[in-house]
Amino acid sequence: MLFHVRMDVNLPPAMPHEQAEELKRSERELAQRLQRDGQWRHLWRIAGQYANVSIFDVDSVDTLHALLTSLPLFPYMQIQIMPLCRHPSSVRDGDA
Amino acid sequence: MLFHVRMDVNLPPAMPHEQAEELKRSERELAQRLQRDGQWRHLWRIAGQYANVSIFDVDSVDTLHALLTSLPLFPYMQIQIMPLCRHPSSVRDGDA
Amino acid sequence: MLFHVRMDVNLPPAMPHEQAEELKRSERELAQRLQRDGQWRHLWRIAGQYANVSIFDVDSVDTLHALLTSLPLFPYMQIQIMPLCRHPSSVRDGDA
Amino acid sequence: MLFHVRMDVNLPPAMPHEQAEELKRSERELAQRLQRDGQWRHLWRIAGQYANVSIFDVDSVDTLHALLTSLPLFPYMQIQIMPLCRHPSSVRDGDA
Amino acid sequence: MLFHVRMDVNLPPAMPHEQAEELKRSERELAQRLQRDGQWRHLWRIAGQYANVSIFDVDSVDTLHALLTSLPLFPYMQIQIMPLCRHPSSVRDGDA
Amino acid sequence: MLFHVRMDVNLPPAMPHEQAEELKRSERELAQRLQRDGQWRHLWRIAGQYANVSIFDVDSVDTLHALLTSLPLFPYMQIQIMPLCRHPSSVRDGDA
Amino acid sequence: MLFHVRMDVNLPPAMPHEQAEELKRSERELAQRLQRDGQWRHLWRIAGQYANVSIFDVDSVDTLHALLTSLPLFPYMQIQIMPLCRHPSSVRDGDA
Amino acid sequence: MLFHVRMDVNLPPAMPHEQAEELKRSERELAQRLQRDGQWRHLWRIAGQYANVSIFDVDSVDTLHALLTSLPLFPYMQIQIMPLCRHPSSVRDGDA
Amino acid sequence: MLFHVRMDVNLPPAMPHEQAEELKRSERELAQRLQRDGQWRHLWRIAGQYANVSIFDVDSVDTLHALLTSLPLFPYMQIQIMPLCRHPSSVRDGDA
Amino acid sequence: MLFHVRMDVNLPPAMPHEQAEELKRSERELAQRLQRDGQWRHLWRIAGQYANVSIFDVDSVDTLHALLTSLPLFPYMQIQIMPLCRHPSSVRDGDA
């Protein structure tokens, strides 16, 4: 089941540099593991923004919520979710 | 080069049924040809909306504009474009 | 799997009275059948609006989209969907 | 009498961990007591958000306001209220 | 129980003058009867707008919805409702 | 002359409790004196919000501005003003 | 008493040219008479818009509403009103 | 050449009282000098707001920008500019 | 003097094809003449939109307004204007 | 390939003066180098704002993102990007 997720990150300017770097490092590790597992199906940077557009493929909304709230940057993100479904004109197996 | 495109379709209620069907049929044909060509890389329906989220992979903004304005439903669509780039945490070759 | 759906209805003022009544009658029949089936779990009118708030319990986003687009009033509705999940403080079995 | 309430929580990043945990613990206790009393009829988490959608069943607006302002997290919440009424197509006794 | 209601009226420009006048005349009659009954407690015109701000005093949300949808101009109005309660600093008996 | 005023209060979380209480106490005293004087004609709490809807009856805009800026909580309020006038359908002497 | 008024005009495209011209001609006559009377104190066109910014100097809100609703273009205008008062740094007698 | 300028002032709550007073005093001096010079043609307070509406009469956009950024309160203001031109129905020499 | 202008075009769907083509043809002629004159300094299409971003270089706001309202498509455009000035970091003579 | 970029700068009020000056100085150096390279094709100040409108000419979205995120002021900017393409009515070689 597919969900379109936009995440906008806002780290407080006063956060120490090391803390920010450590957060980003652990975020990257988890993001890459979830991509390899297939649950975080696509991940793109929005040009000029500290934000991404992602496509998640999960078995339930509860799983999606658990994944998102487990992200180290979750407390610093604004998240918007749109449920997606297969488009009748799609010809791509991977988009279902 | 990747672009995130959202299209919202609004057909006028007074449009004759056959005209609407013909528009949708030719739209679908072109959408499927562009997907097979690789320029319309992803296409999903937004649940509950007459709208889609798409990822285009084109060699220039001019090409993207030419593709979008050639769509039969273009006169009836609201279109929003966000340029995308590779995310530093992405592990998926197909997302670049 | 639960989804929060808000539907705002806008019938064109020029629609003949009988057509509007027939649409509403068939909408009501389908809404009541889906409620009895358990997929349309809750349905409330928003006071002062021709709009409702609903909770759907479906097995997938595709099912939800199919249900919503099958509604006779669908072409005249604005629909907003929010995926829900169980709240950690909930004590009510029926809310999962 | 039913009210649709959306609560978005924003705890200040600088709040000490224990204080936040104590707030959430006492919030949960009160939320569960009010659910058992029947006044907080439904409670769902919005996926990806520190926010909930709730349905309250109270005898007056004054009661609703008193309940909401008694919540330990009230000073950190944005609250939106929509009065609901029975939908003419509803078949569910519990939705009135 | 008090509700703050804002009504914005939009009559279609093509509506025949007599139909508009008849609608307004019957609207005025009902508005005045509801004011005398005490359910439509206050009614003010917003300067420069075809819109009003009203305070309703009703025994339930269902009653409020029934009153509003019975207004002859209801199909041509945008309506926004805010539940009110007694302000702790109020000294006026009539505001509860 | 009547004005519809909405005031939303935002006290900084870091304000010491006593200072906040003292501000609210002096705000209440002034609000009650202005209500007794007749210039602050109505005052209601918006349910679920630290906000009020008020009707002022003043002899000029300058008087209204002087009253509002003299409120102890003024530096912490967002204020929106709409000029009102008598509604042609009003039957209530007190609404003019 | 001063009020800042913004008027945006939207004439329906289908309105016959002569009717539009006649409306504008009578609007201009009334606007000029009210300017000479001193009640319509300033009138400027917003560049690139069929819209104006005006300053009215009237003895009451009721007078302002009566003036605005007497304008021939009133049914085709969106109007926004902000009450003004003398600025403490103003040195210009005419701005009070 | 005329420009409509709205300035909303937000002084940080933590600014020491003397610093705020000194800023306001020097702001007032400059504002009054620019009014006497004729470049700041009108200045009004928006009722209930720490905000003003002003009309500037300058020989170029660069001059307008230089004036605005020279204001002592500039770092604490949100500024919106609309270019104005003479209204064809204006009868007032001073509005050109 | 430079102004940033965004124009969004909305031709009514019911406009006959020839009328639309004639409007666009005369629009193009005037746009090209004004570009050669130097008053319409830049003109770009916004990708995916029937809209453009333009830079005008005119001697006054009145001239800008006269140019814009003389465009054949003016009655079908939404126009937004932002005054520009030379950026202190600009190294390009043509941007002043 | 052309992109329209708007940058709004918000430096924290608490930033020491020297740090702000150093940031602006290095920002200016880089901006001027990128203008001379031809990638930052136009740069204008928006009047009355700490903001600019820029036109970038880059070979890809990735290049644009890399340029923008390398700006010393990037962490303090809100950035909005619109892809542009040649306008069919443009007569200016430099606008393609």
TrEMBL record, chains A, B, C, D, E, F, G, H, I, J:
<comment type="subunit">
    <text>Homodecamer.</text>
</comment>
<dbReference type="InterPro" id="IPR026029">
    <property type="entry name" value="MLI_dom"/>
</dbReference>
<protein>
    <recommendedName>
        <fullName>Muconolactone Delta-isomerase</fullName>
        <ecNumber>5.3.3.4</ecNumber>
    </recommendedName>
</protein>
<dbReference type="GO" id="GO:0042952">
    <property type="term" value="P:beta-ketoadipate pathway"/>
</dbReference>
<feature type="domain" description="Muconolactone isomerase">
    <location>
        <begin position="1"/>
        <end position="89"/>
    </location>
</feature>
<keyword id="KW-0058">Aromatic hydrocarbons catabolism</keyword>
<keyword id="KW-0413">Isomerase</keyword>
<dbReference type="InterPro" id="IPR011008">
    <property type="entry name" value="Dimeric_a/b-barrel"/>
</dbReference>
<dbReference type="InterPro" id="IPR003464">
    <property type="entry name" value="Muconolactone_d_Isoase"/>
</dbReference>
<dbReference type="GO" id="GO:0016159">
    <property type="term" value="F:muconolactone delta-isomerase activity"/>
</dbReference>
<comment type="similarity">
    <text>Belongs to the muconolactone Delta-isomerase family.</text>
</comment>
<comment type="pathway">
    <text>Aromatic compound metabolism; beta-ketoadipate pathway; 5-oxo-4,5-dihydro-2-furylacetate from catechol: step 3/3.</text>
</comment>
<dbReference type="Pfam" id="PF02426">
    <property type="entry name" value="MIase"/>
</dbReference>
